[in-house]
Amino acid sequence: MYKFFKRFLDILVSSITLIIFLPIFIPIIVILRFSAEGEVFYFQERYGIYNTKFKIWKFATMLKNSMNMGTGSITIQNDPRVTKIGTFLRKTSLDELPNLLNVLQGQMSLVGPRPLVKYESDLYGEYKEKRNSIKPGITGLAQIQGRLDLSLQERLYWDIKYVDEKSFNYDLIIILKTIYSV
Question: Which residues make beta-bridge pairs with 152?
């Protein structure tokens, strides 16, 4: 029952959120189209439920071909590959808005462990299977505990805790805390 209700809410809330944020979505698309080398969306391969690959939707915040420059797939603080508009989008988490399309496609949920790139997923070793036994989320327990300020081990701890204790009430608390922190 939880899975059905969670999916229903994912579709409902994602649809409503996309409609509400449309007045923000459209100007971002226009600004990105005419700046940042014309790139609007960025697609990156991530690992979801049962380690299935999918392309995550994000607003483009870095220069074209940034994967072939500097630190490659690793973004560092004050990374020179991040555009000016990209810095703003990342700081406000607006770069993640297109993740709602992944939720509508059924690849992600609103709440769950963040989907990882391959090299991050491989670092979780024996815990990877358990962590990826549920759909990844736009937000999750690790995000409200400190997001990128957490070590890999701390993020894993909070992700596994969520997998073990997931519930509708827990999801609601995480969503409310995410809204408050953003």
Answer: none
Instruction: Tally Cβ neighbours within 10 Å of residue 1.
Output: 6
Asked if 174 and 109 count as a contact pair (C-beta separation under 8 A), the reply is: no
Q: Report the candidate in 104, 135, 132, 146 with the shortest Cα–Cα distance to residue 18.
A: 104
| pLDDT digit string, tens, across residues 101-139 | 999 999 999 999 999 988 888 888 889 999 999 999 999
Beta bridge partners of 80: none
Global pTM value: 0.88
Provide the angle, in degrees to the nearest 10, between the axes of the packed helices 84-91 and 2-33.
150
* Residue located via tokens 């698309």: 29
Q: Which residues of 123-144 are buried (b: 16+ CB within 10 A; e: fewer)?
A: ebeeebeebbebbbbbbbbbbb
Task: Determine contact, residues 41/58, Cβ cutoff 8 Å.
Answer: yes
- Give 113-151 as a DSSP string: SPPB-HHHHHHTGGGHHHHTTS--EEE-HHHHHTGGGS-
The type of residue at 81 is: R
Q: What is the pLDDT of residues 25-77, one digit of tens each?
A: 999 999 999 986 788 999 999 999 999 999 999 999 887 665 545 545 555 56
CB atoms within 10 A of CB 167: 11
